[in-house]
Write a structure and sequence with these properties.
The protein is of the alpha/beta class. It folds into two domains: about 120 residues, no CATH class; about 180 residues, no CATH class. The chain contains 16 helices and six strands. The chain has a four-stranded mixed sheet with strand order 1-3-2-4. A two-stranded antiparallel sheet has the order 5-6. Helix 9 packs across helix 11. The chain is elongated, with a radius of gyration of 24 Å.
């Protein structure tokens, strides 16, 4: 069904591959030993076509092995199969893999509500490799907004600052880039009345907006594009980082990301242009802000505290607007 296109094992919203070759090989060995494997959960996209809610790692491993893309490594029982692909297997074993019905499938029909899919995913997320909150959102709230978040997460500057160099980067596999996009979008609307619970706030935003019109989604996407492009212009390689000694700590901080992205977005076009022409002064201003213990603490510690979210965003926004006025 995968080869025929009936099952999409890599929908945009699904988790990114995280199983190493050894884990994939162990699954294939389980099949050869006739050990039962948990069912996969599918979501019906259209009549006769499905995408994966849970079980992507298993189906990906099966498909990779059966199609010749996976060679077996670090087996415990079938050590004689080390380094073999499906085509290399002895005939009795390859025939057994072709005919035995190993994997059961449970399907959620098209009319299943998103909140129910979310609940299913939460309940499934109790064994194996735990899913990150963003991985769960990307399954439960699929749609135009989710696609826009996923596409926005490909922005080269965001990935550069998060040190995402390719599919094997830990932050990529956990979808941290997508979560940062959603984090900014939610705060750009609600930073003044943020509840103090990022997970609940991000879930709530997706639940409220997953079925927004294309026009509404485009407006939301433009918020992020505007903010990330401005952050790149204003802070360059120092964006989302904090000072350390005479230099800058080479690690992006969520608190710094919040402050800089929302502050940059709130600038008028004329304010931004003025500051972009003096980006070195913006960097110096930011360094000076970190000398304020209250601001530094709001960026680095207890970053979910509502008062600290408001402080770091408001303090940086005010400083940038004042600088723009002074330079105008």
């Amino acid at each position: 069904m995968v080869e025929e296109g009936s099952i999409d094992i890599s929908p945009k919203y699904q988790r990114r591959e995280r199983w190493p070759t050894q884990a994939q090989s162990a699954l294939i060995e389980s099949f050869l030993l006739n050990i039962p494997v948990p069912p996969v959960y599918l979501s019906e996209d259209d009549y006769g076509t499905y995408s994966i809610i849970d079980g992507k790692q298993r189906l990906t491993a099966i498909h990779a092995f059966m199609s010749g893309q996976l060679t077996l490594r670090s087996l415990e029982r079938f050590v004689e199969l080390e380094g073999m692909s499906f085509a290399d297997l002895p005939a009795p074993l390859s025939n057994a893999l072709r005919v035995r019905p190993y994997v059961r499938a449970v399907t959620l029909l098209r009319q299943t509500k998103p909140h129910l899919k979310y609940e299913v995913f939460l309940r499934l997320n109790t064994a194996g490799t735990p899913l990150s909150p963003q991985e769960i959102r990307n399954v439960a709230f699929r749609g135009r907004l989710n696609d826009a978040i996923y596409e926005s997460a490909e922005h080269h500057f965001l990935r550069q600052q998060l040190k995402i160099k390719g599919p094997k980067s830990p932050n990529y596999r956990k979808m941290m880039d997508a979560e940062f996009v959603l984090r900014f979008i939610m705060l750009s609307f609600h930073w003044k009345n943020f509840s103090g619970d990022f997970r609940r706030s991000l879930d709530g935003f997706m639940s409220s907006h997953y079925d927004d019109s294309q026009s509404q989604v485009d407006d939301i996407r433009n918020r992020f594009t505007t903010a990330i492009n401005r952050a790149q212009k204003l802070w360059g390689n120092y964006a989302f980082k904090r000072p350390e000694g005479l230099g800058w700590r080479d690690q992006a901080l969520a608190g710094a990301f919040d402050a800089e992205m929302v502050a940059a977005y709130q600038l008028s076009d004329s304010e931004f242009k003025t500051l972009a022409d003096a980006s070195d002064k913006v960097v110096d201003l930011t360094r000076q802000l970190y000398k304020d213990d209250e601001f530094e603490t709001a960026v680095r510690q207890g970053t979910n505290t509502p008062s600290r979210v408001r402080l770091r965003i408001a303090r940086l926004t005010k400083a940038l607007k004042k600088m723009a006025s002074d330079l105008a």
